[in-house]
Design brief:
Cofactor: Mg(2+); a divalent metal cation
CATH topology of the largest domain: Glucose Oxidase, domain 1
CATH class of the largest domain: Alpha Beta
Protein name: Putative 4-hydroxy-4-methyl-2-oxoglutarate aldolase
Oligomer: single chain
Number of helices: 8
Number of strands: 11
Order of helices and strands: HHEEEHEHEHEEEEEEHHH
Structural class: alpha/beta
Strand content: 15-25%
CATH architecture of the largest domain: 3-Layer(bba) Sandwich
Largest sheet: 9 strands, mixed
Number of domains: 2
CATH superfamily of the largest domain: Ribonuclease E inhibitor RraA/RraA-like
Helix content: 25-40%
Subunit structure: Homotrimer.
Binding site for Mg(2+): 106
Enzyme class: lyase
């Protein structure tokens, strides 16, 4: 389970600031979209791998601990690996969310659900229930590797995956980015231009000279 201080730190930032802090962060394919009313996720991954059969997802929902996020490697298949009953079951168990590289159904219920639910497809056709699936193994979801215990962070912008030992430092760096952006916003609101707030001219000149440079906020 993610520590309370990590949850609190994520409340003050977003996935864009985290990505600005680390360009190598794992970001799930944008084809995996929020289907529910709730979208923000902060929790550790409980992984599932299944192909054409959703029984493994049911097993995961019943085995995961409160706050854990069910991450399903469904191979990108356009079949439903879960629906309303699984969402309700996950709510009862106080899970942190469900992310499926595959389909979800019963969207008339899901779209109002506070449990964050993400999927690649919406489809009425469910898979079979004849295979166990594999739980708590390294999987691929949304084109990126996810291991059991990785920290999942999601919001309106997308879903990212972070190693647990790095998450606090990344959130601190993201908070610093948000603070710098807030200063830029204040300048713009006061009538300044982007060139007054960002080193546009100096960065341009350095690039023209073939020098290494980075775009930065001005103090």
């Amino acid at each position: 389970m993610v520590a309370d201080e990590v949850v609190a730190k994520f409340d003050s930032v977003d996935t864009t600031a985290i990505c600005d802090a680390d360009k190598s962060i794992r970001v799930l394919d944008s084809g995996i979209r929020a289907r529910s009313a709730g979208v923000r996720i902060v929790g550790t991954a409980f992984t599932v791998q299944c192909r054409g059969d959703f029984f493994g997802v049911l097993r995961a929902i019943e085995a995961a601990s409160p706050g854990e996020v069910i991450v399903v490697d469904g191979g990108g298949r356009e079949i439903a690996f879960a629906g309303e009953l699984f969402a309700r079951g996950a709510l009862v168990r106080r899970l942190g969310g469900i992310i499926i590289d595959g389909g979800y159904r019963d969207i008339s219920y899901v779209r109002g659900c506070e449990l964050p639910i993400y999927s690649r497809f919406v489809t009425p056709m469910a898979g079979t229930t004849a295979q166990l699936g594999e739980l708590q193994i390294p999987v691929t979801c949304g084109g990126v590797p996810v291991s059991p215990g990785d920290v999942i962070l999601a919001d309106e912008e997308g879903i990212i995956v972070v190693e647990p030992e790095r998450v606090e430092a990344l959130l601190d760096a993201a908070a610093a980015t948000k603070e710098a952006e807030a200063r830029v916003v204040a300048k713009l609101d006061a009538g300044a231009t982007l060139s007054d707030a960002v080193n546009v001219a100096a960065h341009t000149e350095a690039l023209q000279r073939g020098e290494r440079s980075s775009l930065q906020f001005l103090a």
